[in-house]
Design goal:
123 residues, mainly beta, four-stranded antiparallel β-sheet
């Protein structure tokens, strides 16, 4: 699978951004996808995942971020509302989980990654 993330940028606290991840080489409807993020000096952390019609969110973004997909495009989206300075990071989309079941929350359990897109939230 090939993944290409875009849509990042600079936004003020309280604002919104929508990230997109273009997917090729794999049916989007049947394979899990996820968003992770990595802030400077920190480990890559789970943000959200989608598999079939089920979604999962990190506690830090629940209620503010929404993951969705358009199988016709095929693209996975991350709508980010009420952004906070602590949301500043490089955001990556991930595919090819290495095990079955619910999408894993650990980055090392995903096999494919997009190139990342920068999100900066100013206070």
């Amino acid at each position: 699978v090939q993944l290409q993330a875009f849509g990042g940028g600079l936004v003020q606290a309280g604002g919104s951004l929508r990230l997109s991840c273009a997917v090729s080489g794999q049916p989007l409807s049947t394979h899990a996808k996820a968003w992770f993020r990595q802030a400077p000096g920190k480990e890559r952390e789970f943000v959200a995942a989608i598999k079939w019609s089920s979604t999962d969110y990190a506690d830090s973004v629940k209620g503010r971020f929404t993951i969705s997909r358009d199988t016709a495009k095929p693209t996975v989206y991350l709508q980010m509302n009420s952004l906070k300075p602590e949301d500043t990071a490089v955001y990556y989309c991930a595919g090819d989980p290495k095990k079955g079941g619910p999408p894993p929350r650990r980055a090392r359990e995903w096999g494919s990654w997009g190139q990342g897109t920068h999100v900066t939230v100013s206070s």
